[in-house]
Fold these 4 entries.
Entry 1:
Amino acid sequence: MKSLVEKYNKLKNENPKARIRDIANQLGVKEVELIAISNNNIQLKDEFEAILNEIPQLGPVMALTRNEFAVHERKGTYNTSEFHGKMGQVVGPDIDLRLFLFSWKFAFAVIENDKKSIQFFAKDGSAIHKIYLTKSSNEIAFDDLVEKYRDNNFSKNLIIEAAPQEQSPVSTEKIDIQAFQQDWLALENTHQFFSMLKKHGVDRRHALQHAPEGYSQTISKDKFKEILQKVAKEQIEIMVFIGNKGCIQIHSGAINRLVQADTWYNILDQKFNMHLNEDGIADIWVVKKPSTNGIISSIEILDTAGEIIVQFFGKRNAGVPEPEGWKKVLTEIDNSIS
């Protein structure tokens, strides 16, 4: 029987451009297991906060966060991270992250040919966040970081935990629609939305289906692309959120180059790339949430399980109203979105 190393090398040789995530799925293993078997890669201690606070010393890098159907790549320099317990953030004009360490378990320095990166993985072996060196990065700082946090007790037999089972939402018949809609209309900021869902035991898709009149509407893929094309043409600054159980990565700014490549819809700009696999899209919603600064509008793309693939907002700072350009483009695309 072939070893995992042999199987991996065979598939990699047959398709050199194949991504490690896809090869792992093909082999029925987790991505971190393929990372661990390479003698070039070095497992780091699980001192995630400390490692993240060393990242600014690397200088310009490329940050990557993805989920099953979307990839978010942003170039720039990390600022120092801030943590409150297991929740943290990296805030800066280039790299903007929300971090949830509850699910983090593994960290590796990955060296593949001329590519060097620091990669973080969840308890279930799935990738959470990756930081790639660029031509402008400080490789000496990278080497020093690796030596400082190298795990000398490393074992290639990683203990992978099963992903936790998601709790089933309350059935539609048991939702108090009137109370739910009242709470929606009473929202004071977008951060209260998730706790509102938990309070009523409703998943996001059911929530959007039972939103107050005029606060949610489905749109087609073509309509969504039309919106992004108009946003790019008019240079309307937006925010693009893509995340997973351990990290949400945010781009804020204008977008320019929109490219369709087979089933992937892409933003391919100098500092920011988004790759969206249309095969994963179940529905697309324009959503409105009240706040103390007026209505906040978003586009939310969901998969078949009702999980968010990607969210788009108009670029704004906390405590200020939604930008008029973003509001206007949503209204112009379809007069029924008011």
Note: The chain is about 25% helix and 30% strand.
Entry 2:
Amino acid sequence: MLKVRTYVALAALVVFGQSVFADQVTLRNGDRLTGTILKSDDKALVLKTEFAGEVTVEWPAITEINSAKPLHVALKSGQTLVGGIKTADGQIEVEPANRQPVSVSKDAISSLRSESEEVAYERSLHPRLLEGWAGGVDLGFALTRGNSETQNLNLAFIADRKTTWDHIGLYANSVFASNDEPGAIPGTTAESTQGGARYDRNFAARGFSFGEADFETDALQSLDLRSVLSGGLGWHAIKTSRATLDFLGGINYTNEDYSSLQRNLVAITAGEELVRKFGAASVITEKLYVYPDLNQTGEYRAAFNLGTVTKLSKWLGWQNAFGDIYVTNPPAGKQRNDLQLTTGLNVAFKH
């Protein structure tokens, strides 16, 4: 009988000890949740529970917060406190080590972070150059044999690294198509490659500066290489988790090497870029740039790109891309427009 009482007492002590050392959140309807507070902002709090995993609770629904473990408490005033927290008389008391408790209102708190979340947050502010990259590789291929002899290959690559302060973007794409029928003219029906890099640096909540280098070849337009170096300022007109819309303006230096001529010119850079998420699986991107030539009034180059990616799994998706490059003054006998429409698989990656 004594052993049974001992076991019951030990079990009660374990349960009681878990409730004492666990974080606790009380809601407006009287419910209480226990677990480990991971993080919060002024919209929601994330609590890791033993049996339900991570639970997200709306911040306005919370009336009391108690945590014995130290939390990093960021206030809207800009001050940061570190310590255990408890609720007393409707105020949140932060208890820093070896210091007097500091009492603040719940509305004055902009975020809470556990020690592990604080480490991750600090690392996200100053990631190493090879960290924080996300992007994808597009692949499309078509082949016909029999009554027709054609092949078509398109490859594309895009990678982005965004931090609180800056953004690095890399891209490359290539399209090749041929008609292999004996005597077909032309035998090559598409052969173009584009690639480049851009660096943005935020100097305000909405404003940023940018520098960019773009390169392009197009065999059917007799373009051996077009090099464009651009720089200027941009504005985040829309900047949310679901959509971004940027307007950019500046100046560029362009060098064009065609088979029959060479041009060097200074032009204006004016453009806009849109990224919009639809649901949990689809993203649409759109870009439009115009480059008016400052050397010859009335001459310009324009580039338009529209793409969609729909996720089929965590890393695999289906992509569609449309592009149009327009030049007002191509070499004699060449078309002004070059249109491209590609579709295929998208393989996403993160690092």
Note: DSSP finds two helices and 21 strands in the chain.
Entry 3:
Amino acid sequence: MIKIETNSDSIFFNLAAEEYYTTVLNEPFYMIWRTTPSLISGRYQDIYSEVDLQYAKENEITVSRRKTGGGTVYADLGGVMYTKFYPNKKGSDISFAECSDDIANAISSLGVKNVSYSGRNDLLADGYKICGNARMDTDHGLLHHGSILFDVDFDRMEKALMTPGGKLQSKGVKSVRSRVKNISSLTREQMSYNDFKELLWSCVETDGCINAQDDKDKISPIEAQLSSWDFIYGVNPRFEVLSKKRFDGGSVCCGIDVYHGQIKNISFTGDFFYSGDITELTRALTGAKYDIDEVLSIVSSHGAFHNISASDIALLVCKG
């Protein structure tokens, strides 16, 4: 396998690098990388029902989407991500276990007991999830990648993945919440990220090394596409939101139909007072991005809810 070093902790650059090399290399490659705090939704996931976007924004957690399926995962600098590519192969040719046997062996060598595979796509230790995996067939072969829980901040993970208040009915695929453990808490001795990374490298025979930074100009267009609003939110499945809250100025119930990240229909009901024509506000919101900053801008420029701030309404619309 060719060893690829991305020398980046950007989720978008790393996902773009793995995609780029599937198109130009006709031999297997292996990447080990990590990312600054990020939420990575699966290709068919409804981000709005999986991620607390307000918490992510307040805590500088990047929201992203990958092209493989599976559930939403949280990763940070305490996690270890890996990518493998098998040219001219399909998922039916290689099992999840075969793709990560070396990962399991490396973890077992640290004294972690009962490392095994779940029936789906997870790597377990004593029944606790320590690594999740995802994959897809590309035009050139099989792309397989995984997220290893080495020393991840579980507190931030739990809060970032916690669905916000309000009732949200989604047609997307919900993530499966699993019991999790950090490998660092299961080992006999302390180990740094770099030491663990080198252990993983040592378990696979590599032939040659590529520095992805040398191909940055070719990777950047893919990075721009993966980090765009259209890719992250625009492909989101249709879902409906019904949220209600009582404020000092009265109760407000908001019903919203969202498709591909845009508000298609929205209504406000309740015992509130509104200065202006509420239908003008709903017309202005129809077609807008389901994004708190855009919603706040529109609400602020159309009439006013008596004794209820525009930011309160924006939060009700986008968070519930």
Note: The CA atoms of residues 106 and 200 lie 6 Å apart.
Entry 4:
Amino acid sequence: MHNLVSSGTAAVTIALASAGIGAGDEVIIPTFTFVASFEAVLMLGAIPILVDIDDTLTLDPEAVKKAITPKTKAIMPVHMCGSMANLDALQSICKTHNLILIEDSSQATGATYKGKPLGSIGDLGCLSLDYVKIITCGEGGAVLTNNESYYKNADHFSDHGHDHVGNDRGAETHPFLGYNFRISELHAAVGLAQLRRLDEFVSIQKKNYTIIREALSTIPEVTFRTVPEGGEESYSFLSFFLPDLEIARKVSEAFRENGIDACFHYYDNNWHYIREWQHLKDLKTLYPLSAEIEEGLQYLKTKQFPQSDHYIGRNISCLIKLSWTEDEVKERARKMVRCINEELS
């Protein structure tokens, strides 16, 4: 079951609300994500608890275990750059501690884990359908669930609490408070057309991804992100590690100087990694926050994430485009190999 909504951020907000997560509840999220992850949690008055990633570039299950407190209500892995968290491990943790598993699959539509699409495995899943995703509505999102109660909650909450009973909208009742996170019919129509081509898009991306990965595999110092056993990426990004932070920074700059676009070194990135989220650490808001949030986020003023730094500092993630010709992909791969070898020498 799914609800189409106005954005991926809206999808995460609705998923959390549908599961009853709100004031003072703690939600475990990764240090490497998009700012929307903690924005959605804060919007509901809950507290984002950021924990380390591992070489999957997603939540480290051992770090998750250490972060659980009596206030923890949900674990929210974010399947960044087209690949997934170790969902078996996270599901086991949720079962042990009676927690809700919410998948943020905004960047991994088309990827699968043990034969199931990402977003369909947890209690709730969230997709983003904005213009930079593998399938797009222009702007939109979706909430996925196999739980009838969560489905109804999401349906009502995303449309001002309307119960959607009958054919007269003005006569509908409101079982509970809701907000306006509806998608427009025009955006939905675009998304449906795109969805029919998802398998085709993944196939093209896999071809382009494979050409570049095989080229980079000839460099002994390059290693690749770990994909959990049973997982298959969406091939929307190729993520690899270099020996250290200094080399990664130099390679990233060399890529830019040589016209190799859309390759991201997230260590210094404002949008996707904890290091540069000063507005979160300093709680810069337009309005007063609850005492629970202010107290609950004090840990970010001093907490360090050396394990996450170790992986993000050495990582470069390169977008894989559908529009490239085979010759363009091969030329891009040659340039990337040359740049990396020059910085390693």
Note: The two ends are 53 Å apart (CA to CA).
